[in-house]
Design brief:
The structure holds two protein chains of two kinds. Chain A is an alpha+beta fold. In chain A, 63% of the residues lie in helices and 8% in strands. In chain A, strand 5 and strand 6 form a beta hairpin. In chain A, helix 13 packs antiparallel against helix 17 and helix 14 packs across helix 17. Chain A starts with a helix and ends in a 5-residue tail after the last helix. In chain B, 32% of the residues lie in helices and 41% in strands. In chain B, strands 6-5-4-3-2-1-11-10-9-8-7 form an eleven-stranded antiparallel β-sheet, sandwiched between helices. In chain B, strand 10 and strand 11 form a beta hairpin. The chains are: A alpha+beta, B alpha+beta. Chains A and B meet through helix 7, helix 8 and strand 4 of A and strand 5, strand 6 and helix 4 of B.
């Protein structure tokens, strides 16, 4: 199958965004952008473990140097100062435009004297070496003020200049890849490069690989790891499941030919549907594929109905004609149910709808028109009649079993009540659960991020403007007001694009505060009097202040040429509509409620909780799915009322289906499993399968043996489904486990509920 | 009877060599090991800094202390009060309420100074030899160790550190920079002649 996909050149997309609605609000636009292109998706926290503290330091340095040379990475941080002399000179040259300290008071005689006193002290102390180079050019330390405002408020623990944690003892690096987090091929290359750098660093430090360990987290490594383990594990589990299924089917039908052709409807349905979707949409989403193949699982049953219902001497075509009305009704109602998804606003859901509808129709058509011909059409040559085997005892045992419709009703009611009573804990809307990463990895990721003092990008303020300049001005205004919020302790700090690129108006204001050469010379001379500085020492300072007075203010284009460019572009972006957005990440929010109220008084800025918005989006998706399921139920009801005339037969068909779905959902709920989209999809499959069961139990039977054959068919169907999905339910991968256990559980329940709920003949 | 002068000289030298083995084998390692202090010993110092940017030298007075295994404390008492402490690779400067902390690894020059100073006081010759080329000059009663940094990038900032002393007493610690700036610390809970030399400078 995998080979076939490659041949057909199917584009599988792995980003989740198609499963989110078209972004309408600012929060949603931001969230989608953040998910797709955000820096947070490109950050890889790296930890290196070793016993020797000094070896960790030199390994960290070696890795940073190696990775710094690679095109795959934008930035490498390990605590070392990474600024080179050209970058330093750039900042020094623009210090009077960038320094937040420039105001009318900055160059008075008093302020100058204060600065010179400060410099004297430093010259006398051990800081002498750090300040001497700049003394003549920058006695007021404007360039340091620039760097200081760029420094993060919290710095990770360091040892000998690089980030090394003491407990647990490990070196930490923060790596930013050039490719976005969802580009798994590029991420895999980046990960390989990091591993390679690590191995080189091990060799350089003569450390045995057994005494050290490399750990990486973040969206990229998670995605890559998940892709390989999911691929490996799902292949492994599907192989076991299919093998067991083949053995089981062979044991039942004793025909290799039947087992082989029995796979045709599902295989052709899946393949052709994928091809159709791929050519229709120009690509296929990974989740559509996973959900779609799951939902198409109902087609495993179609050939089994045909096989089990064939009587001795009957041609396969005749058997098909007998069961076709029932099968057709099942296929039609399931298709129409899934068709409701086609109309969805969510592209992913619409794709899923098309995939399942097309797949089911093809599977049904293959079963109806292709399979009977392939069954050699010589039923009389075979000695198989389901009515003569074990199904006879099974049927006899069950015929003693009462038909207890009230029990089903009760199940439904209890299920519904349980379900509604636990509403808050009902749903799993955390977007993280859609890209399932083991809890252990998630914990490690959190620990590393905390140790690295990496700000979580959950809370943000967003400003909209029609030009970069007005966006920067607005973020300066907000910055001034936010300083008070930092004082109150609701947040520990914030970041802002204007911190790296002040608005032109601010830069011009600063320029205006620079005194003319005569004034400055006079003030400096007065400030210097009595101090041991040489008389003409500060000539470079006087010259550069004078030059700065006519300097061209920095604009966005200038800063993009510098290492700060990458940072500024993440904080100041142009949306497709031409508007500019400034983003102000808020660090360590302690009081989101107060903060929200504070922002509510400032309508010119939007306060956004990305986690809440992502949960809202998932909840929106889930609600849409629920409504469509409800609509589908109504449509199925109508079809059944028409298809199963006369009388109230539709009640007996629909009752087991609804009871099964509700009972399975409450069962999951009782096991305190929150329902994610994977569970919902599985429940839809359960509904489809049990509907088929109920329809077949409801058939008008001309002879008693026929009902035994139906028992045979449905029992084989049930065991097949249990085998396949039960195996998947044993997987360690949360998605596979959720789908497998839900379907297995639901089908098992549904089988018995369908028997209990069948109509009195 | 004739005396074989050559032979006699040889014998005398041999005898001298046997009698004074210490004098013959005296080297930088002996000097540094002889300086080894236990922690806690406080030495008074006077530091004079000659900087190109200034037209007269800076004078600082205070006390200095080695804090094993690899730290030191330098307290300036005049003309202002300042405390510098070095421990676990971090240098902390305190003056009044102002505190500044720097990571020594990020400031190789400060690190070179601290390293040389602490290694000398700890009698750690291996530590010194790892980072400096060492030349010993003078004699036991008046020696000077010339430490030249091995690393090129460090030599751009510190051309030489000169440590002088008498037998196992440290007398001065001088840092020379390529641009001509230099600073010299005199330690003076010690010999009287040292106190005299400081007087001369002032």
């Amino acid at each position: 199958m995998v080979g076939l996909w490659a041949l057909l050149n199917i584009q599988i997309r792995s980003d989740l965004t198609a499963f989110l609605p078209d972004a309408k609000t600012d929060a949603e636009i931001l969230l989608l952008d953040e998910l797709q292109n955000g820096v947070s998706s490109r950050l890889i926290p790296v930890a290196v473990i070793a016993d020797d503290l000094d070896a960790l330091v030199s390994m960290s340095k070696s890795m940073a140097t190696q990775l710094g040379k690679s095109e795959l990475f934008n930035q490498i941080h390990n605590g070392q100062q990474s600024i080179d002399s050209a970058q330093l000179e750039w900042v020094i040259r623009h210090r009077y435009l960038l320094s937040p300290n420039i105001d009318a008071e900055r160059f008075t005689q008093g302020s100058l004297r204060e600065a010179l006193d400060e410099r004297m002290w430093e010259l006398g102390s051990a800081a002498e070496f750090a300040v001497k180079d700049l003394l003549a050019r920058d006695p007021t330390h404007e360039s340091l003020a620039v760097f200081k405002q760029w420094q993060p408020t919290v710095e990770p623990e360091t040892h000998r200049g690089v980030w090394v944690q003491s407990d647990p003892q490990r070196a930490l690096l923060m790596v930013e890849t050039a490719a976005p987090g969802f580009d798994l091929d590029a991420q895999a290359l980046a990960i390989a490069a990091i591993q390679n750098a690590y191995l080189n660093a091990l060799a350089e430090n003569d450390i045995q690989s057994g005494d050290s360990q490399l750990m990486m987290t973040g969206p990229g490594p998670f995605g890559v790891e998940l892709r390989s383990t999911t691929q490996a594990e799902s292949q492994w589990f599907s192989t076991i499941a299919v093998t067991l299924l083949i053995i089981f089917l062979f044991a039942v039908y004793r025909s290799v030919r039947w087992v082989i052709i029995g796979a045709l409807p599902l295989a052709s349905g899946v393949l052709l549907a994928i091809v159709a979707i791929n050519s229709g949409y120009g690509g296929l989403h990974g989740i559509t594929l996973a959900f779609g193949v799951t939902l198409l699982g109902v087609a495993i049953d179609y050939p089994l109905h045909l096989f089990s219902h064939q009587t001795t001497g009957e041609s396969a075509n005749d058997t098909m004609r007998r069961i076709w009305p029932t099968l057709r009704l099942g296929v039609a109602s399931t298709c129409i149910a899934y068709l409701t998804m086609v109309l969805s606003d969510f592209e992913g859901l619409a794709q899923l709808g098309w995939l399942t509808v097309i797949g089911l129709l093809i599977a049904a058509a293959t079963t109806r028109w292709l399979l009977p011909g392939l069954m050699t059409n010589k039923g009389q040559d075979r000695n198989f009649d389901a009515a003569t085997g074990w199904a006879r005892q099974w049927r006899a045992w069950f015929s003693r079993c009462p038909r207890i419709h009230w029990l089903l009703m009760l199940t439904m009611v209890i299920g519904l009540l349980l379900w509604l009573s636990s509403r808050p804990q009902l749903w799993q809307d955390d977007l993280g659960s859609l890209t399932p990463v083991s809890e252990e990895s998630q914990r490690l990721d959190q620990q590393l991020r905390q140790a690295l003092a990496a700000p979580d990008l959950r809370f943000m303020a967003v400003l909209k403007a029609d030009s970069p300049e007005s966006a920067l001005r607005a973020s300066e205004r907000l910055g001034n007001e936010l300083d008070e919020v930092v004082e109150t302790g609701w947040i520990t700090g914030y970041d802002s694009p204007s911190r790296y690129l002040p608005s032109t108006s601010t830069q011009l204001q600063r320029q205006a505060h620079l005194p003319d050469p005569e004034t400055l010379t006079m003030r400096l001379r007065a400030a210097q009097s009595g101090m041991p500085f040489k008389a003409d020492l500060f000539r470079p300072f006087l010259l550069e202040v004078d030059q700065a007075r006519v300097q061209q203010p920095l604009v966005l284009g200038d800063i993009l040429q510098t290492p700060l460019g990458a940072l500024v572009t993440t904080l100041l972006k142009q949306s497709p509509d031409g508007q500019w957005r400034a983003m102000i990440p808020l660090h360590s929010v302690n009081d989101a409620v107060e903060l929200e109220a504070w922002f509510a008084e400032r309508p010119w800025v939007k306060f956004i909780d990305l986690k809440a918005s992502s949960e809202n989006m998932v909840a929106g998706f889930r609600n849409e799915m629920l409504w469509r399921m409800a609509a589908a139920t109504m449509v199925i009801l109508l079809i059944l009322m028409v298809g199963l005339r006369p009388g109230r037969r539709w009640v007996f068909v629909l009752l087991p289906v609804l009871a099964t779905v509700l009972a399975t959902a409450s069962l999951l709920n009782l096991m305190s499993i929150r329902l994610s989209l994977f569970h919902m999809t599985s429940l839809m499959l359960v509904g489809g399968i049990v509907l088929d069961y109920a329809l077949f139990f409801d058939r008008e039977e001309s002879e008693p043996d026929e009902s035994i054959r139906t028992f045979h068919a449905l029992s084989v169907c049930c065991v097949s489904t249990l085998t396949v999905f039960g195996i998947l339910g044993l997987s360690q991968i949360p998605v596979l486990r959720a789908i497998g256990s839900t379907v297995a559980c639901g089908v098992f329940l549904g089988y018995f509920l369908a028997i209990l709920g069948r109509r009195q003949n | 009877m004739s005396i074989n002068w050559t032979k006699a000289t040889g014998v005398t030298l041999l005898l001298y060599g046997l009698l004074c083995p210490a004098a013959m084998a005296w080297d930088a390692a002996d000097v540094v090991r002889g300086l080894a202090k236990k922690g806690g010993d406080v030495a008074q110092f006077t530091e004079i800094k000659y900087l190109k940017a200034l037209d007269r030298p800076i004078r600082l007075d205070g006390e200095v202390r080695f804090t094993p295994p690899d730290g030191m404390e330098k307290k300036v008492t005049a003309p202002y009060e300042e405390l510098m402490t070095v421990s676990a690779g971090k240098l902390k400067l305190q003056r009044g309420k102002k505190v500044r902390e720097i990571e020594l690894d990020r400031h190789p020059v400060a690190q070179a100074f601290v390293m040389a100073f602490v290694s000398t006081l700890a009698g750690n010759i291996e530590g010194l030899e790892a980072h400096y080329d060492i030349i010993l000059e003078g004699e036991i009663r008046g020696w000077t160790l010339e430490l030249t940094p091995k690393a090129d990038e460090l030599r751009d900032k510190v051309s030489q550190i000169r440590v002088s002393g008498n037998t196992d007493l440290l007398q001065s610690f001088e840092t020379l920079q390529p641009n001509g700036d230099r600073s010299i610390m005199y330690f003076s809970n010690l010999p009287t002649e040292l106190g005299a030399s400081v007087e001369v400078i002032e």
